[in-house]
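Usage

Read records sequentially. Each one opens with the input sequence:
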Amino acid sequence: MHAPMPLPLPLPLPVTSLLPVTLPIATPAPVPETSPWPVHRVAGARFSQRCFSLLALPREAWKNQGGWTRTVASAQGADGQTDWRVSVADITAAGPFSVFEGLDRQAVMLQGARLRLRAEPPEPPEPPNPSEPDIHFNGAGSRAAFAGERRLVCDAPTEPTALWNVMHRRGRVRAEVSVHNDTVLHLPPARHLFIYVMSGEVELALPHCRTQGLSAGQGLHLQHTPAQALLAPCRVGSWVVVTAIAEEKNPL
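and closes with the structure output:
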């Protein structure tokens, strides 16, 4: 196979603007040697970034002990409750999904073929609720959104399956999850921004910084994303999941 070549700018590809960008940034500051992850900060600004590899993240048991998850990042409010969490769930067998009161959930299939989440049968004599339809994933890139209070049961997947899972406190935190392929993106200056490469390779360009490449299975957690940040594919077939998180009262 030929090594992928970085795409020059401007590119003859569709450009998606997630949000207008208008803020400048300064030059990078040194990274503390004690950082457990590759972290880069900007002098005189709040911007920082953390690189991660999905397979390097430790596995944790689900809340209901019915599966495994890898936490990418999370935050708690002053009351000690989860404000938001970004993770990847590994699904290999049928079983119930954990219930999370007060949280909204969004999920993207990263790996797998077909997967159905159906409403857990109610205890007799309570009748089924027809207003809660089944949730279907139909291959990598398919997505769904649902309330964390829903009692769902996962059918046995036809092959090992992984879901990009975003949870956020209703009324307190907002999250926007999107999937893009072979597209140049203007990244929004969000409080927290996550990029995960599902397939192919991409390059991130930040003002006054060297471009950096990411390949399948790798990601970035950006905090206070600077304006004029661009994400570009390096070859055809590059798919990414982008997740922006902010407090409900603040814009993404």
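Summary fields computed downstream for this record:
- The chain has two domains: 15-54+175-247, 58-171.
- Residues 1-44 have pLDDT under 50 and may be disordered.
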